[in-house]
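Lecture 7 notes. Example A: sequence first, then its structure tokens.
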Amino acid sequence: MNMDRSDVNAAFSADTLMIDPEQETEKIVAALRNQLRGTLRKRGLVLGLSGGIDSSVCAALAARAVGAKNVLALFMPENDSDPESLRLGRTVAEAFGIDSVVEDIGPSLQAMGCYDRRDGFIRELVPGYTAEWASKVVISSALEGDGYNISYLVVQDPQGQQTRLRMPPSVYLGIVAATNMKQRTRKQLEYFHADRLNYAVVGTPNRLEYDQGFFVKNGDGAADVKPIAHLYKSQVYQLAAYLGVPDEICRRPPTTDTYSLPQTQEEFYFSLPYDRMDLCLYGLNHGLPADVVARAAGLSADQMSRVWADIGAKRRATRYLHLAPQFVEPVDEVARWE
């Protein structure tokens, strides 16, 4: 239904993103079944279960789609993981009757030099940095300063003193490259178990993460099915409540659980908390007036402009993450084969 400007002004709010969770669940479950049986020809589903809201909802949907006995959850802690993530992941698996396996990837990452490589780049800025220190990467908010995304290194010494440092590109890229080994190692194990069971791998990004490139290529971005990539994160929370995801997981702030210092998704990547980012992204996607979206998201006109500019910048910067391998010539015979 077309609405005039006065209708849009009155109607756009967080309620605009409300869904019918029962109907949405049925749609996703049906799609998963069709994808497994028709396209992928697999027996079940494997997913990494982090104790976060997205993977928890995907686990619940997988169990509904193929039965809990045909779903395998992997817990893949490493040296920097919050122990709470493993506990919460086990809580989800138990809640939905899903079999699970613990794969501690810390020794593998250590053997590949993940931590040593990362720490070597950190020591270019902090020569005294050792294993007794902790660190994380944070990003400047698009609402502040000149609107550019500037990444900073935050280090904490053994006495608990934190220091924030501007990183040159070589240090930033080196730290990220080493850290991305974590997501790629996890995905390798997901596909090991998928191959041995003839299962498909579930990817767990929501729409905000998928749109903004908040994933590692051939790491957590790799999957056979991505059942919630069309849903805004606030809609994922609505599904969680309907599906019976444990309350403590629904209350847990979204976190990357990647660095040795606690780190929220907001300080690492997004300009705003997820519920306000959802409104901004929805408004941009649907061509709503900036002043209407700004009012719903609690932003000034200047802040609204900065957030939309940041969304566009992240889309441009991460476009390559969504691309298939580039060929010199198309291989049409494979695409046509049935």
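Example B, a different protein, same format:
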Amino acid sequence: MPEGPSIIIAKEETEIFENHVVISATGNAKIDLSRLEHKKLLGVRTWGKHLLLCFSGFTIRIHLMMFGTYLINKRKATKLRLGLVFKSGELNFYTVNVKLLEGDIDEHYDWSADIMNDKWDSGKAKSKLKDIPEKLICDALLDQNIFAGVGNIIKNEALYRARIHPKSKVGKIPAKKLSELIDAARDYSFDFLKWKKEGTLKKHWEVYTKHKCKRCDLPVTKEYTGTTRRRSFFCENCQKLYI
């Protein structure tokens, strides 16, 4: 599933259609496609893992899910979920979730929860974490209401940077260490974006999919952790378990 930084890249690539009018809208998305036709795309925004196509009075929310893709001025054989044709080109989405959000987009989203947004509020994130003391930190980091945009790669790498075991209970992690983790998650998100644009992201992974800890030269443990059962990679030696 694409994480926040990849959605930022999608936003930047689709911005070429901003202020252009949709000539036609096609696909099997379960929305009223006619509402998009002859409407101007006023802007492209993101919130976490959501790509937002903003029109006057409504917004189209695109979630790429696990296997979603988008193509600009290209098509493929897979069934089209949503295709927008402009005078200047076309934007096509496949295997994505499409939802129409009515009204002002600011009423639908808390921008302070988006870890890559300028309005990100680390204090609010810490406050939300305090409300779930029994939750495992590996699950908390993937909670989009707290860390919108964080996915499994960012989760693993941020925990490794902060030296925290993924099965630690949120309420047992010292306040200073929790702040360090919150900062690590945001910092890594922007590093992710930079490396993704360079095409070097995998080269910079320190623990994700690795077999040996670069700090300790000991085996990295791979385990499906928490209620999310997502893959966690961690070093039992240098990532402290708080329980």
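Note on Example B: The longest strand covers residues 50-55. The two ends are 29 Å apart (CA to CA).
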